[in-house]
Amino acid sequence: MTAIMSETSARVYSLGEFHRFEAGGAHFLYLVPAGAIFAVDGAVGNLIDRLSCGEVPHDRLVGEVAAANGFAIEEAEELIAEMYHANVIVAGDSVPDQPQPLPERFPIQTLVMNLTNQCNLSCQYCYEFGADKVATPEGKPKFMDAETAKAAVDFLLAESADRRSIHITFFGGETLMNFPLLKEVVAYANRKAGEQGRQIDFSLTTNATLLTPAIIEFLSQNHIGVTVSMDGPKEMHDHLRVFANGRGSYDIIEPKVRALIQNHRTRPITARVTLTAGVSDVIRIFRHLKQDLGFHEVGFAPVTTSPNQLYAISPSGMDGVLEQFHILAAEYLEYALRGESHGFSNVSDTLAELCQGVNKSHPCGAGLGLLGVGPSGDIAPCHRFVDSDQHALGHISTGIDREKQTDFLRRGHIDSKYDCHTCFARPLCAGGCHHEAFVRYGDTGHPNLHYCDWIRDWTHTCLEIYGAIAAKNPGFLQQFAERKAE
User: Fold this and answer.
1) pTM, two decimal places
2) CB 412 within 8 A of CB 420
3) Would strands 56-57 and 12-15 be described as parallel, antiparallel, or unpaired?
4) Are 113 and 376 in contact (CB under 8 A)?
5) HSE on the CB side for 47, CA within 13 Å?
6) Separation CA 385–CA 440 (nearest Å)
7) d(Cα 330, Cα 63) in Å, to the nearest integer?
8) Rg (CA), the chain
9) Distance between CA atoms of residues 34 and 22, nearest Å
């Protein structure tokens, strides 16, 4: 005991790594190494202010904390010990929390099945056929067949180890161009998972052009989550989401989307918007998709492309997007304080990560808990790299190439991204999308430096929203405890 007390007395304290913010009349710290949020009272604030002036030895700090707050020596000791173990303050022997190291094996939880690489639209920004995409080698099938699909299901069941709940996302191309196979996969996967006493969940992304009452009924009956790629009102949606003859697709999908939202009774329907230079009126798009059409949630993402494309959003354009995000974020907070759902998923997804204390080693699950499988059976880190030989991680007939997987994950690990090591947003960002990095920098492990200021600003905004809700309506946050944040 004497040795421990002597060791403690010998400590010289300084501030740990955190991001300070205020919300709802309360003060908070975002503890960066842990990805945790800590409420700050007056005593903690005084302690931080004192250490802001420089290092302080233990015994002197105890005395100053006691005097500043009217504490007994024992109370000051307890406060300092608590802040030390939380890494709010650190000393030479502190061991801060770190993102998880690269695992040798990680069971898959989600498989993205590209049922086809074909699409009935010719969206000008599509990464599948754009100049930024490594061309799919000749001779590979454009449509997945039943044998490959069933082998992919078997692969997922085998590689997911003892996970009781697993997930399949159907993707394309346009997913519904291979709808008969989708139905076959759902039946096969449910049967195989059931034999093992496991649950399997399904979702899909679609452009909605091929929806029919029968398809909608099937999706509803089988509890299949649906995300519709839609870019807003007619003139904005039709700006780039066109058929091969240049005709816009809005008039085709609008009544189908309304039917989907009305008749899919088992899962909420969401929209995903791709923002481009010609389509960046975030507020108007949100109002149309959420209020006019009735989507449950609407999420936005800037187009993934090289900066020299005409549809790429300029830095000033991204500033405008952020301003509109702030307006919707303020609305979101107003709704949350009333206990109501707003529908801006860019906030919801970040709140989910904050509530779960996410501290990412990688930007997403690509190559880790999530893999993509193309029509050929090639395994990719995610759907965006499907059937690109340069990024293939194996084949479902032969399994995962562990050497390639390890290389992909090692380069994508936050520890390999030195530019990120002093950024407070790194627990949520971890450097940004692998595919975006490849498009911009030619390296899937390169941090997305062009978005850094944007991400920091948005992370701070979401922290303020979290803090305000935690201070004024904490029950609202309970819904995010188990929510999967994409």
Assistant:
1) 0.93
2) no
3) antiparallel
4) no
5) 30
6) 15
7) 43
8) 25
9) 19
Q: Strand 370-373 and strand 379-380: pairing? A: antiparallel
- How many angstroms separate the CA atoms of 79 and 305, rounded? 50
* CA distances, 464 to each of 332, 423, 471, 485 (Å): 12, 17, 10, 19
pLDDT tens series, the chain, 486 aa: 454 456 788 899 999 999 999 999 999 999 999 999 999 999 999 999 999 999 999 999 999 999 999 999 999 999 999 999 988 999 976 666 666 666 667 899 999 999 999 999 999 888 654 444 444 556 789 999 999 999 999 999 999 988 999 999 999 999 999 999 999 999 999 999 999 999 999 999 999 999 999 999 999 999 999 999 999 999 999 999 999 999 999 999 999 999 999 999 999 999 999 999 989 999 999 999 999 999 999 999 999 888 878 889 999 999 999 999 999 999 999 999 999 999 999 999 999 999 999 999 999 999 999 999 999 999 999 999 998 889 999 999 999 999 999 999 999 999 999 999 999 999 999 999 999 999 999 999 999 999 999 999 999 999 999 999 999 999 999 999 766 543
158, 119 in Cβ contact below 8 A?
A: no
- How far, in Å, CA of 12 to CA of 49, rounded? 16
The b/e string for 105-141 (b: 16+ C-beta within 10 A; e otherwise) is ebebbbbbbbbbbebbbebbbbbbbbebbeebeeeee
- Per the listing, tokens 């059937």 go with 387
All structural domains of the chain, each given as residue ranges with its CATH number in brackets, are 2-90 (no CATH), 110-400 (3.20.20.70)
Q: Residue 472 half-sphere exposure, CB side, CA atoms within 13 Å? A: 17
